[in-house]
Amino acid sequence: MATSITPLGRRVLVKRSTSEEKTAGGIFLPDTAKEKPQEAEVLALGVGKDDEGKDVSTLFTVKKGDKVLISKYGGTEVKLDGDDVLIINEADILGIIG
Length: 98
What we know:
Elements: E1 11-16, E2 39-45, E3 67-70, E4 76-80, E5 83-89, E6 93-97
Antiparallel strand pairs: 1-2, 1-5, 2-3, 3-6, 4-5
């Protein structure tokens, strides 16, 4: 289990928001029936250089702490201190919430 992760290149480390436990009608959903939430919080940004040798830290349009909307099935899930987090390409971020 990792204790810290620093993404490389134009990748972003995000944590998905918690999904709803029950429907609007009051029905409780089991874990297997829940959809993966598309809202997430940015935990860390990538480091290093892009293909053209530019420092990637100046290229990001999101910043740590931003609430973002991500694609449903993109990225790679990993465990970080017992939590499920996701490493995604910045291109998989659909928008900034708020």
